[in-house]
Amino acid sequence: GGAALNPEVEHFLADAGFPYLIGYGLTECSPLLSGGPAGDPSIRIGSAGKPIPGVQIKIVDPSPETGIGEIHGCGPNVMMGYYNDREATAEVLSPDGWLATGDLGFIDAQGNLHICGRSKNVIVLPNGENVYPEAIEHKINTYNWVLEGIVVENNGHLEAWIYPDYEVIDEASAGKSRAEKREYIDLLLENMRKELNSQLSTASRISKVYERREPFIKTATHKIKRYLYDGGTIPA
User: Fold this and answer.
1) For the chain, what is the mean pLDDT?
2) What 3-state DSSP class applies to 218?
3) pLDDT for 185-228, tens place per residue?
4) DSSP 75-109
5) Which of 41, 53, 130, 231 would staple 154 via disulfide (CB 3.0–4.6 Å)?
6) How far is 51 from 121, CA to CA, in rounded Å?
7) Which CATH number fits domain 7-118: 2.130.10.10, 2.30.38.10, 3.30.70.20, 3.20.20.150?
8) pLDDT per residue over 150-193, tens digit each?
């Protein structure tokens, strides 16, 4: 829980006939908004399924081009409010019970919910294009030599910061000199940049991939504290 299932893994599970469930929700909705029964052919791979019984989901302020907007949910499982905190409650809960999740997504023609990322994480480029860093980071984290990575904006350009799995790299570069190992890592980073950019629109391509030599600072729930890495901070 807590992160999207890698589409490659989901394809593998589906092809193998292995039963699995996908769900989406928050603590504030006890905790599920959407999902789906295993084997339902109408639930698309890569989606978070359909609203569970008794729950309604709507997309607020959707983009005319993409249909992406903020996900709101309503149902008997949605909280009444935060305990003794009316101000925080009013920020996320409408008077008629709709919960603003803070997540961005869209609903496809079959009624499946697709999650694109957190609204506060969206990067708006100088050309006005919205970039959802989580989608690119999902691709980055599929590399077996990457432990974790994030995408940030720096002076109108996108950069990827990578914390490598040095055990994997050391094994793959065994017998190489220190200089050769440095060249090997640089080649990995550059090849990643080219591979990522081949899958991205021209405006949202990665200008540089940096190696970070220490783990990213995280929250108590093991999520990277993005606000510490705003593009103006040199990777450690």
Assistant:
1) 92
2) strand
3) 999 999 999 999 999 988 789 999 999 999 999 998 888 998 88
4) STTS-S--TT-HHHHHHHB-TTS-EEEEEEEEE-T
5) 231
6) 24
7) 2.30.38.10
8) 999 998 899 999 999 999 999 999 999 999 999 999 999 999 99
CATH number assigned to the domain with residue range 123-228, chosen from the 4 options 1.10.1740.10, 3.30.300.30, 3.40.50.970, 3.30.465.10: 3.30.300.30
CA 185 to chain centre: 25
Bond into 31 cis (ω within 30): yes
Q: pTM of the entire structure? A: 0.79
Handedness of CA 108, 52, 70, 10 (dihedral sign): negative
d(CA 113, CA 145): 31
Contact predicate 135/117, CB 8 Å: yes
* Nearest by Cα to 29 from 68, 70, 90, 81: 81
Yes or no: say if 26 and 33 are a contact pair by the CB < 8 Å rule.
yes
Of 143, 165, 160, the closest CA to residue 213 belongs to: 165
CA distance 121 to 133: 7
Hey, is 42 helix, strand or coil? coil
| E strands present in 155-211 | 157-164, 206-211
Residue 59: CB partners within 8 Å, gap ≥ 6? 67, 68, 69, 70, 71, 72, 105, 106, 107
